[in-house]
């Protein structure tokens, strides 16, 4: 198999994927909220969950399920409704954030970086699950991957190569949000941000609620 013939296709995918992942959306809001509220470790686990969530979209795109979801309106509406409720729940949790005092500051922040969670109420497993579900239930991501696999990626491209594209996008997504987490939990910046962190929580919560309302309006319009 001469992989060199697929470089142009891969470059197009990489550019489109970067534009999509760098655009503010549910993933960005969730990573920002959990990184600032619970610290670097939690943010990294959420980022990893988001990256692995990409593989869900890749799997059903390879199997043709994405086309099935798009063609049958009731399936699309069901996925849309589940995603809307989940994002609304996350947004409601975030928008209720209360002001924090310096006493709540992570011990690690008093020296260098926010390497430990602020609170034990979010385990690594739960943080991973939040990231995974946020991306896995994102119906807009479904449409994005449907577009990739139906217009950018040629039908003749071998399944193994398509799988390679998917693994790349999963890794690139996890790396992007991990870098975002590292930037936001950099000690000097985080110490200044901490006193306003509840407002960041509320802003990200509002963003998630607005996305949820938008998705619900789409559901109602299709019923």
UniProtKB/TrEMBL annotation:
The keyword rRNA-binding does not apply. Keywords: Cell membrane, Membrane, Transmembrane, Transmembrane helix. It comes from the Bacteria. It is a multi-pass membrane protein. GO terms for cellular component: plasma membrane. Its main location: membrane. PANTHER family: ARGININE EXPORTER PROTEIN ARGO (PTHR30086), TRANSPORT PROTEIN (PTHR30086:SF21). This is Threonine/homoserine/homoserine lactone efflux protein.
């Amino acid at each position: 198999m001469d992989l060199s013939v697929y470089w142009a296709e891969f470059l197009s995918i990489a550019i489109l994927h970067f534009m999509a992942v760098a655009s503010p959306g549910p993933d960005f809001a969730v990573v920002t909220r959990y990184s600032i509220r619970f610290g670097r470790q939690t943010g990294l686990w959420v980022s990893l969950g988001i990256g692995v969530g990409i593989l869900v979209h890749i799997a059903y795109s390879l199997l043709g399920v994405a086309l099935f979801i798009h063609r049958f309106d009731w399936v699309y509406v069901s996925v849309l409704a589940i995603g809307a409720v989940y994002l609304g729940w996350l947004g409601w949790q975030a928008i209720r954030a209360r002001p924090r005092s310096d006493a709540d500051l992570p011990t690690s922040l008093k020296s260098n970086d926010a390497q430990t969670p602020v609170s034990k109420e979010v385990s690594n497993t739960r943080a991973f699950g939040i990231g995974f579900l946020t991306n896995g239930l994102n119906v807009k991501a479904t449409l994005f991957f449907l577009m990739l696999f139906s217009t950018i990626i040629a039908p003749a491209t071998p399944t193994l190569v398509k799988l390679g594209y998917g693994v790349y996008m999963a890794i690139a997504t996890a790396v992007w949000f991990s870098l975002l987490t590292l930037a936001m939990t950099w000690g000097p910046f985080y110490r200044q941000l901490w006193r306003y962190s509840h407002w960041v929580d509320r802003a990200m919560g509002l963003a998630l609620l607005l996305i949820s309302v938008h998705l619900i309006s789409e559901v109602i319009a299709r019923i």
